[in-house]
Automatic annotation (TrEMBL):
It comes from the Eukaryota. Pathway: Cofactor biosynthesis; ubiquinone biosynthesis. One of its GO terms (cellular component) is mitochondrion. This is Ubiquinone biosynthesis protein. The keyword Transit peptide applies. InterPro entries: COQ9_C, Ubiq_biosynth_COQ9. Membrane-associated protein that warps the membrane surface to access and bind aromatic isoprenes with high specificity, including ubiquinone (CoQ) isoprene intermediates and presents them directly to Coq7, therefore facilitating the Coq7-mediated hydroxylase step. Participates in the biosynthesis of coenzyme Q, also named ubiquinone, an essential lipid-soluble electron transporter for aerobic cellular respiration. Residues 148-219 form the COQ9 C-terminal domain. GO terms for molecular function: lipid binding. It is found in: Mitochondrion. Belongs to the COQ9 family. GO terms for biological process: ubiquinone biosynthetic process.
Length: 247
């Protein structure tokens, strides 16, 4: 069997992080949680009605225009209402990304090891793995190069959500570096997951654990976040090549 080929555009997005201050990128894209103001709803009433109905058809029809049309009908709209979604199928994918992120706080129960509660790092690992597993139905479409920018935008929000739910209380520059680091780890693991054929994605879970361990062991000894990202990028390339991905 010929080795799988990963899109240069997709992986180039990941590798580009090593050539740009990632914390600066995170400053531009990351939202933050406010205890004083309610979060603006991510979708309008009509969009939410159609997309939620369409999402119910994904198990039978996948992330397709057919699901969108059926969702519009179920919500009481004409088929032409799908024009509300200029990105077509990816708007349904984006609905999946956003709703799964927002559902983390209710759907993921962080285990308590007896009297000793898990630390922030362990909670980050649990939340990240749960979010990755929820992406399984959308992996093939999300890997397409034309959808990468929107996925990255949601990625920044996801990294913030995970650190927030894990109990991170940083108020200094580490607020940015933690989220940028997790964004890099998450995106690398997601790329790995698209090539993983192991039962229940056990190799993806190990890959995530290794990247988190790399951050703990190596991150503190490097002078800049960009150096760590570059290290992680090269490490990820080598691992993916070992699985037959031509990069």
């Amino acid at each position: 069997m010929a080795p799988a080929r990963l899109s240069n555009s997709l992986f180039g997005t990941f590798r580009a992080a090593s050539h740009r201050p990632l914390a600066a990128v995170c400053r531009q894209r990351c939202s933050y949680h406010s205890y004083d103001y309610a979060e603006v709803p991510p979708f309008s009433k009509a969009e939410s009605a159609i997309l939620s109905s369409a999402y119910a058809h994904v198990p039978g029809y996948g992330f397709t225009i057919d699901s969108l049309k059926l969702g519009a009908r179920d919500a009481g709209y004409l088929d032409v209402s799908t024009n509300l979604f200029p990105r077509g199928v990816f708007d349904l994918i984006n609905y999946h990304l956003v709703t799964q992120r927002l559902a983390l706080k209710d759907n993921v129960q962080v285990p308590d090891n007896g009297e000793k509660k898990l630390g922030v790092g362990s909670k980050v690992r649990t939340l990240t793995l749960a979010r990755l597993r929820a992406n399984e139905p959308a992996l093939a479409i999300m890997a397409q190069p034309s959808y990468v920018p929107a996925s990255i935008s949601e990625l920044a929000k996801l990294a913030d959500e995970i650190w927030f739910l894990a109990g991170d209380q940083s108020v200094d520059s580490s607020w940015y570096t933690k989220r940028a680091s997790l964004s890099t780890i998450y995106s690398a693991t997601e790329v790995y997951m698209t090539q993983d054929k192991s039962p229940n994605f056990t190799e993806t879970e190990q890959f995530l654990d290794n990247r988190l361990a790399d951050l703990m062991k190596v991150g503190g000894f490097m002078g800049a976040l960009g150096e760590w990202v570059n290290y992680t990028g090269h490490s990820t390339v080598n691992v993916l090549r070992s699985k037959g991905v031509r990069i």
